[in-house]
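[agent] plan:
  1. take the single chain provided in the ticket
  2. run structure prediction with default settings
  3. attach structure tokens to the ticket
  4. add a short note for the reviewer (M.T.)
[agent] executing step 1
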Amino acid sequence: MPKRFGRFICRDRIPIAVIESLRAVKDVENLGVSFAVIESLGAVKDVENVRIVAAAMKANRSRFQLTASACNILIKNFGRAGMVDELLDIWHAMKEYGIQLDIFAYNCLIDGLVNAECIEAAENVLVTMNQGRVSPDVVTYNMLIKGVCKAGRVEAAIEYFRQMEIVNCFPDEITFVTLIQAFHSERRYDRTLSLFQEMIES
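[agent] step 2 finished; step 3 output follows
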């Protein structure tokens, strides 16, 4: 059964009974369908049905091996659905299974926490990264800047922006646009214009 079937299920809103039937499927190929279903349901924040599919997968965890890619998909979409406990469960499982926690994994964790509106927890992840061997990149900072801006902490966003300069992590268009939109929404037009000028000159 191809992975795109999972997207078809959610796009056309086929009854959840079809999704529940996936629990009985035991071949590895259909595990990809489960991930696709969670990804699609997570995108529309359908928490109830994400929980149904996730519970089925957890119950059958012994029959498949977690991979970094699978875990990152789950973390990202549990975050979208606001399922913080499940998100952290997968993160701890990655450690338990000895899966490498690289920059992509940390970015997925931060992304999940930001989408779940756990901004302080996401910021603590950055602290952990700085204390360890994984250096944050522009994606890391962009997600944190987005998170603190959504929380109304635009000055904290500027602090992260300046921190990027210190660690030689160069901002990109996403960085500037996020900051410009945040300051513009607060009618702080002088700062908006200065950021726009800085973006042009960078």
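[agent] step 4 note for reviewer: Residues 1-15, 21-29 have pLDDT under 50 and may be disordered.
[agent] ticket updated
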